[in-house]
Structures are given as structure tokens and as C-alpha cells.
Amino acid sequence: METLKILIPVDFSASFKFAQAMVEVIQNTRPTEVFLLHVIPATGNLEDLEDTEAHLRQSTEAANSAFASLQPSFTFKSFVKVGPVVQTINNFAGETGADLVVMGTKGADGLLEFISGSEAQHVARYSAVPVMTVQGAYLPAKLQHVLVVSDFQNPTQHPPLELIKTLAAPDATMHLLHILQPQALNQVAEIKAHMQEFASLNGLNNVELHLHQENKVDEGVYHFNQDHQMDLVCMGTHARKGLSHLFYGSIAERLINHCSKPVLTYHL
């Protein structure tokens, strides 16, 4: 069985423990190689270069000391980098050949979300690697019930099912969810046929199909999870940027902030 390479961005807050707990769950299904990365934001200018260098030395020493005090159940390699936080995380994921980024997050609400969103949102938006975000509200003992959210209309836009199967428990149930909006009420038979075709093409045997009626997709996923005990929510994002992202947002990114269950996002 191949080793799964996992990158955990670390800010030494309580949220690291959420990511740590999830990696310990993943290790029950597959061997892992774990990289911990702390990013020191680049600050200062040429006029105070000496002060900046002293600050970076002190920050690096403090980070290395904090790494030494961590006691997760898994072995890890630790790294300290200087630069823009999101860009540095995503670049480092590429450098290490990471298969997955796991981030603990506290989410974001209201005005904070509109202005800047959570750091996890921004990593997910630009990462070429699937990103799993974990809030402390719900930490499963194993990923027994895995939810894949899609419209299932385009067969070429498949989630990274091999990764999802790797993360799931050996006897896991895969749940396929389509949020049925009012304008599509007359397409139920067609949608179910697409979902069944998706399950067949991807060799999903232990699978359940769900249609949940709601006006907005993110609210539908949120309410579905309130009524069903899912352990992992998987959803693709088109990674809209700029003004279009402000207007339309990303359903997957909003789930990162508001869904209490672990969320796996990936680019379609």
C-alpha cells in the first residue's frame, strides 16, 4: 500500500489538534508521511532590514521550539518558511508532492467571511492539492459515512475518488448527494440515472443515493448533514477568483466555514 503524503499547516493554535486527530484517523486505513509547515509572514522593508532579520531569526527559533514540544502519535518532518501564508503553503505542497493538505479551522462568520474568509478558504481556493478542513465540533473515530456532493451532470468532472476511497474506512458507505433546486423538480428521474451511472462507472458498490430539496446548494448540504450522520463531506470547487468570486462565491468554500463535519475540497 502506497504511503499517503499529508501536509499540515501549523500556527500552534488549538486548531492544530483538530488536524492532528484527523491524521490519526487516516492512519488507520493507510500509512502516511506527514509534513508540518509553519509560515512566518514576510514583513519589513530595506530600511529596517536588521530588525527584520532579527525578527525572522527569533520567530524561526520559536517555531522550532514549538515543533519540538508537539507530541502527536505520528512521526513528522517539520519546516519553517517565510513568505505569503497561502502561497507558501500551496507552493510547499507542490514541492513535497503532498497528496492532501489537512487544516484545522475555526471557520468564519458574517462580515469576517465576506471581507476575507478564513485562511483555510483561501488555501482551498488556490491549492492544486485536495484540502481537508476539520473543525473541532465533530471528529469521527473513522470515516464510515462519506458524502460526495455534486450535480452529477458532467461525467468528466469526477472527484478524486481514489483518494476518497483511501481515506474512507474499508467498509464505508459512499453517499451521493444532489441538491434538488425548484427549477429541477421535473428532472428527478434523469438526475437519479446520472447518479447511478456515476456510481457504476466508478465501481461504487456500497452506495446510497440522496436527493435533498433546497433553494441553495450550500444550505441544502448543511441541512442534509444536520439530519444525517456523515463523517466526511466531499465537494469540488471551480475556484472562481476576483469579482466573480465576490458575486457568486464558492459553495465548497462556504461549507468550509459553516459545516461542522470535516470537508474535503478539490478543484474540478
TrEMBL record:
It comes from the Bacteria. Residues 5-134, 144-266 form the UspA domain. SUPFAM superfamilies: Adenine nucleotide alpha hydrolases-like (SSF52402). It holds the Pfam family Usp. Belongs to the universal stress protein A family. PANTHER family: STRESS RESPONSE PROTEIN NHAX, UNIVERSAL STRESS PROTEIN UP12. This is Universal stress protein. It comes from Adhaeribacter aerolatus. The lineage of its organism: Bacteria, Pseudomonadati, Bacteroidota, Cytophagia, Cytophagales.
